[in-house]
Structure formats: C-alpha cells, structure tokens
Amino acid sequence: MKVSDILRVKGNTLYTVTPDDGLAEAVQTMAEKDIGSLVVMEHGELCGLLTFREVIQTIVKNGGAVGTAQVRGAMDERPQTCSSETELDEVRRLMLDRHARYLPVMDKKMLMGVISFYDVAKAVVDSQNFENRMLKAYIRDWPGGDDGAGG
Q1: Threshold 0.90, pTM exceeds
Q2: I want to staple 19 with a disulfide (CB 3.0 to 4.6 A). Which of 13, 72, 100, 150 is the partner?
Q3: Residue 37 · residue 116 · CB < 8 Å
Q4: Closest CA to 109 of 49, 50, 41, 14
Q5: Residues near 91 by Cβ (< 8 Å), separated by ≥ 6?
Q6: How large is the greatest C-alpha to C-alpha distance in the chain, in angstroms?
Q7: Could you tell me the mean pLDDT of each successive run of 10 residues in the chain, 151 residues long?
Q8: Half-sphere exposure of 133 (CA within 13 A, CB side)
Q9: What is the 3-state secondary structure (H, E, C) of the chain?
Q10: What span, in angstroms and rounded, lies between the C-alpha atoms of 143 and 151?
Q11: pLDDT computed for residue 9 by the predictor
Q12: Domains of the chain
C-alpha cells in the first residue's frame, strides 16, 4: 500500500497558514477544525509544519500563554515529508524514527496532502480487516468440506 492510497480515501482537504499569521489564530483554526496540524506555506511553497506539539512547547516557553507569537516562531521548519509513492511500511518507519504524527506529502515542490499517524493506523487496520474477511471466506468455501470439519 502507498501513501496515494491513503490520500485517495482521506480526500484532499488541506488547512494552511503563513509564517506571519498569529499563533493564536492558528490554534483557533486547529480547534475549530478538530485537526492536529497546519501546513505552513510561503510564496506557494511548504516552509514548515505546525502541530499541537509545537504549540504546547511555545505555550510552555511563554509561561502558559500563546501571547502575540507568530507561527514562524513555533513551527517545525524542516518537517519530515514523503511522496505519494512512498510505501506504507516506510511511512511507519519514518513516523516512528522521527516521532512524527504528521507527514506532508510532496510531489517535487507541490503539496499533495498531509497524512497522520491516525490515517496510517486506520489504513493498516482496514487492510487487515479486509484480509481477515477474505481468509474467512476462503476457509468457509474450502473444497471437500463434506466431513463437517470445515465449519
């Protein structure tokens, strides 16, 4: 399974901010949309990723408040990325190695979407459920099941 398979199921809704947007506005968007990340775009290109991890770190640095901070001061300037063609096993390894919960999906310099740890876990579970159903159907239809052992 590839990242493109996840994006096809997930859809292509993206939420973005600019580095000069206020962090408070970005946090409000994340809360309203019930999302854990915002892609940071500047001049039409990915320049960072803002996740709840960076927001929490900034709040702690500011003594418990977002204050007047800009996205630029909180964002991850070098987020791990993947492509549509990246295999799911590689995505899982990247996410685990970097403790990344979100990966922007890039096609050269074009942003194709963002996949989350949740998206990856859901794809794995859905794939396993499908495989289990197919195996159970295969066993149920086992030839020569006249002896009652086939179920």
Answers
A1: no
A2: 72
A3: yes
A4: 41
A5: 3, 82, 103, 115, 120
A6: 75
A7: 90 90 96 96 95 94 90 95 95 93 92 93 80 78 58 49
A8: 6
A9: CEHHHHHHHHCCCCCEECCCCEHHHHHHHHHHHCCCEEEEEECCEEEEEEEHHHHHHHHHHCCCCCCCCEHHHHCECCCCCECCCCEHHHHHHHHHHHCCCEEEEEECCEEEEEEEHHHHHHHHHHHHHHHHHHHHHHHHCCCCHHHCCCC
A10: 12
A11: 85
A12: 3-140 (3.10.580.10)
Bridge-based pairing of strands 102-107 and 45-51 is: unpaired
Residues 6+ apart with CB under 8 A from 83: 3, 105, 106, 107, 112
Residue 67, number of CB atoms within 10 A of its CB:
14
Residues in CB range of 34: below 8 A, 6 or more apart: none
CB 22 within 8 A of CB 71: yes
Q: What is the pLDDT of residue 47?
A: 96
> 40 with 18: CB under 8 angstroms?
yes
Q: Say how far apart CA 100 and CA 76 lie, in whole Å.
A: 11
pLDDT of residue 3: 93
Beta-carbon neighbour count of residue 82 at 10 Å? 21
